[in-house]
User: Fold this.
Amino acid sequence: MKASAYKDLPEGELIGRYLEGDQEAFEVLVRLHKERVFGFLLGMVQDRNLANDLFQDTWLSVISALRKKRGSYEHTGRFINWVIRIARNAALDHFRRRSRWTDNGADETYWDRLPDRNPLPDAVLTISEDLQLLEESIGRLPSAQREVVLMRQEGLTFREIAQLTGVSINTALGRMRYGLINLRKMMNSAHQVPVDTPVTA
Amino acid sequence: MKRIHMDKNLWLLLHLYGEEHNADDLDELLKDGALSEEYRQLGQVKSLLDQRRVHPDPARVAHVLRAAAPNGLHGAADTTRRRPRMRLIRRVSAWSAFAAAAAVAALLVWPLDPDDAVAPDSAPSEAASESTEVLPPWDDGSQLVDVYTHIEVLSARSTDDAWDEPEVLRIDSLPPAGASSGFTPASAFRQR
Assistant:
């Protein structure tokens, strides 16, 4: 089957074909969503190597779950939502594991426990200064706001985000609003005055 | 979506992200100066976020696709993944600790007096083979403790008693059989 023919197939059909042994169908799914999944993970962990590790883990979990047919994916839902859910779990597992290694002293604040704020060590990525600043600012958002911003940016609707994170749609929208306001504040103040204390949802 | 019980600022976000399409409704909201300014400012951030493009390492994608092949999860060797840093540090630390322990052991076992050294040329190789024989698995904490304990025992045996605090009585300090105790109570001196 030609690659172009796969483009018109619904995701449920692609998954069905993959489970029948058509590997190319799965390749189409990966190529469709790889940037979204990676973009979400990179924004969450703020470390390119780690995001790549988690990206790989996420897709291996997807393959494993599809093969065992025990995955929570249902044809009624969007495939990307399910994959982002798995990616989110991978990121949360990482934070839990890291918290065991980290000496959480009494003086340490929430902001200290956020991932490394250093610029991404990737010379290949020629992003503008604003985009680099944006990336750093995303990493400084409170985690609840960060994940909503990233999920929405990767194409999930607010209703889907609310469902995935187990909150009301008003809460999801509220976190998004504060997330955007905080990003704007941090970016505006980056070259002027010290960063404002972010608004918490 | 119904706007009942929803804040105008939140409703505005639905318009910003294209999840609400009623143009008249948006016009109505933007008549409010504060809301209009928020819409403009958040729109700027959104447009910057929309430019954010990141790509995964192609080697990782290739690995995933190999894994997706039949029996791929078992067959695809993972050559892309980084080695966990903490594990590496732990292993390096274990090696360092063992090397230090082995060095101390070698110093203690090695005769300090040159006359005691029977075969200087062969001694290092013997010591080496001995240490090879007792080499514990390099990351086994309990065996490392055993080695340390062994070093402590050897150290105690090879060191003369300190002049002022013999921990164990020497055999020649004990009275001969049939004789009275080698210890004389202090009161006896006073009686003399």
Q: What stands out?
A: The first helix of chain B runs from residue 8 to 16. Residues 117-140, 161-171 of chain B have pLDDT under 50 and may be disordered. Chain B is about 55% helix and 0% strand. The interface with chain A takes residues 1, 5-7, 9-10, 13-14, 17, 19, 41-42, 44-46, 48-57, 60-61, 63-65, 67-70, 72-73, 78, 80-82, 86 of chain B (CB under 8 Å).
